[in-house]
Amino acid sequence: MNVTPTITQFCHQTWQLNAQVQLTQVADDKCYIVTDKTPFHPVSHIWPDHPADKGSITINGCSHDVIDCLVGAVELTSNTLYVDEAIPVKRDQEGWVFVVVHVVEAEKAVVCAGDSVELTVNKAYQQALSRGHSAGHLALLALNKILTVHGYWRKDAERKDPLGHYDFNNYAQETSTVSENHCLDTYRLGKTLRKRGLNSADVITDLDKIENLINQQVNEWLANGSAVIMQCDGECLTDSRYWRCDLSRDESVVIPCGGTHVDSLTEITKIIITLREVEANYIEMQTDVN
Q1: Helix 207-223 and helix 123-149: axis angle, to 10°?
Q2: What are phi and psi of 212, to 5 degrees?
Q3: How many Cβ atoms sit within 10 Å of the Cβ of residue 288?
Q4: What are phi and psi of 74, to 5 degrees?
Q5: DSSP annotation of 165
Q6: E strand intervals along 28-181
Q7: What is the pLDDT of residues 77-90, one digit of tens each?
Q8: In 10 A of CB 11, how many CB atoms?
Q9: Using CA atoms, how far apart are residues 216 and 261, in angstroms rounded to an integer?
């Protein structure tokens, strides 16, 4: 059976659909199942900030837990599937297609290419991740804005965010982790960032002040209740996707993002952001949806 790129539906508020199995592979007591389309969001093998969806796959009337959901790449000439960190090529490599891989316990799954299956995402879990991820976007935009507007940069920085503020997040972010109603970002305030113009010592000294200003800004944006639109350049996993939101009358944002998100900021009642210094030259921003 010819394998085609997985048609993704995780940006379309779709939690259940019927699909056709294109390929299966068993390894390490796990069965990897690739279907022609899916509502499941896989964890990225490149930037694994957003966890895999949870849910189930129904095969011949029997429901099986999807214990993981990963990115895969299929070499078309050999019909060989490479999963997660084993993927040897970049996306859009000629002769390869990228797919979503549903992982179930091998001993419990009897499935073949061509079979019809039903895929069901744990809606509550995905929505909790979506709230955490969208809140994280608001927090980083507010952090960039506060550091710019309140004079924590002493010279012009080349990188700007979608609102035109110096992109501290892009310069300094080392890790980002989304979880249910939560996002945690870590930043390094090192020598390079100081050379670029950030007054790092003042940022550390004023963390409480900056935290208060960020919370005020984020919750002002929330009060507008704007729609969130996921713009997809295509329906395949490797096609670009963008988070779009009009935060206020004069603040429209477009951010490249492959995660799942809320449909509207009205789905988030309140956001609480906490800044802390975790070690010398490192700070954390914890974003919680209340």
Answers
A1: 120
A2: -65, -40
A3: 16
A4: -110, 125
A5: S
A6: 30-35, 37-38, 55-59, 62-66, 68-75, 80-83, 96-105, 116-121, 173-179
A7: 999 999 999 999 99
A8: 21
A9: 22
Mean pLDDT of 103-118: 90
Instruction: Determine contact, residues 265/225, Cβ cutoff 8 Å.
Output: yes
CATH, range 124-289:
3.30.980.10
Question: Each residue of 260-286: pLDDT tens digit?
Answer: 999 999 999 999 999 999 999 999 999
Residue 166: both structure tokens together: 């110096």
Numbered ranges of CATH 2.40.30.130 in the chain: 7-121
Do residues 35 and 117 lie in contact, with contact meaning Cβ atoms separated by under 8 Å? yes
Q: Which two tokens stand for residue 89?
A: 């090529």
Instruction: Give every CB contact of residue 44 below 8 A, 6+ residues apart in sequence.
Output: 50, 71, 258
**Right CATH for 7-121 from 2.60.40.10, 2.120.10.30, 3.40.50.2000, 2.40.30.130:** 2.40.30.130
Within the chain, all domains assigned CATH 3.30.980.10 are found at 124-289
Torsion, Cα 218 223 226 227, to 10 degrees, reads: 90
CA distance 82 to 92: 15
Residue 251, H or E segment: strand 251-256
- Taking phi first (over 0 means left), then psi (-120 to 50 degrees means alpha), and beta for anything else, what does residue 60 get? left
- pTM for the full model? 0.96
Chain CA centroid to CA 181, Å: 13
Q: Which residue type occupies 145?
A: K
In whole angstroms, give the CA distance from residue 101 to residue 94.
20
For 248, the token pair is 């206020």
Cβ atoms within 10 Å of 265's Cβ, excluding its own: 22
